[in-house]
Design goal:
By secondary structure, the protein is α/β, with parallel strands linked by helices. The chain has helices spanning about 35-45, 55-60, 65-75, 90-110, 130-150, 165-175, 185-190, 195-200, 230-240, 255-270, and strands at about 5-10, 15-20, 30-35, 50-55, 75-85, 115-120, 150-155, 180, 210, 210-215, 220, 245-250. The chain has an 8-stranded parallel β-sheet with strand order 8-7-6-5-4-1-12-9. α1 (about 35-45) packs parallel to α3, α4 runs parallel beside α5 and α5 (about 130-150) crosses α6. The chain is globular.
Length: about 270
């Protein structure tokens, strides 16, 4: 793993959800892990990672000074925060972008390099013809928000959004300038070949999410198990000459520190 900086997502240290007040206030609808971020940082550092990514809601729980103290105690760097939005509904877009601005402000205060977003809502009645264009327009606004703060903005494809598989990724990247943050498990679960997708879009990738995945029962896993072979993915990352941050994700695991250690051990061997 020489030349790569390895981080871990703190979302595994509690149940995943969002701020409940967001049901009636779009501007407050952040992602959230309902657990201790101090414990997450301690475990992530103990597992041998150098950095951490958080959900926007968890990061905004802290002042910059408070969170920097936790980072310093753990010996970690903040890599990024992850935010999401519907993006396709123009009436609420300003509220969503305002929330993303708040997260970007905090990321920049802490000197982290990346802002990551996911989204593009699936309508109950089906995707409309201009939904991808609306998403692209919103993502350009995210690019501007990030640039104004010295950050790099990234789009993360995600199951249950309108951007899931290879053709979706190809289309949205053709319509926006935002960087591409491939999530290997989501891409595979959507029927894609993550290694091929990484090679195809190498010039748009400056940040990567690695995650294991098993088909039945559906679950995300550490990198050393499941149905997704991460070895070809790592070869592709080497082949494109990638030398930035790679963050390992695992949305849920009974022992989150053990899950982090399993993936780190796999990467150390490969």
């Amino acid at each position: 793993m020489e030349g790569w900086k390895l981080g871990y997502q703190a979302n595994c240290w509690g149940p995943l959800g969002g701020n409940a007040v967001g049901v009636t206030s779009i501007s407050e609808l952040t992602y959230r892990t309902f657990g201790s971020m101090e414990a997450a940082l301690t475990d992530i550092a103990a597992a041998g990672y150098q950095g951490v990514e958080l959900f926007d809601g968890n990061l905004l729980d802290f002042s910059a000074a408070e969170f920097q103290r936790l980072l310093d105690q753990a010996g970690l760097s903040l890599i990024a925060a992850y935010s999401g939005a519907n993006f396709i509904f123009r009436e609420i877009l300003d509220e969503e972008l305002g929330r993303i601005r708040r997260a970007a402000d905090r990321i920049a205060e802490l000197g982290a390099p990346h802002l990551v977003v996911g989204g593009g809502a699936k309508r109950r009645g089906g995707t409309q013809e201009d939904d991808c264009a609306r998403l692209a327009e919103a993502l350009e606004a995210v690019v501007s928000i990030a640039r104004e703060r010295g950050l790099s903005a990234h789009y993360h494809p995600h199951l249950t959004t309108i951007i899931e598989g290879p053709s979706d990724v190809r289309r949205i990247l053709s319509e926006t300038s935002i960087n591409f943050c491939p999530d290997t498990a989501h891409l595979a679960a959507a029927g894609g070949d993550p290694a091929a997708i990484i090679r195809e879009h190498a010039d748009r990738i400056t940040y990567i999410h690695l995650k294991g995945w098993q088909k039945e029962p559906f679950a995300f896993t550490p990198l050393d198990r499941g149905d997704l072979d991460s070895a070809p993915i790592l070869r592709a990352i080497r082949d494109i000459g990638f030398d930035g941050w790679i963050t390992v994700e695992l949305d849920a695991w009974d022992d989150p520190r053990k899950g982090a250690e399993l993936s780190k051990s796999y990467l150390d061997r490969n």
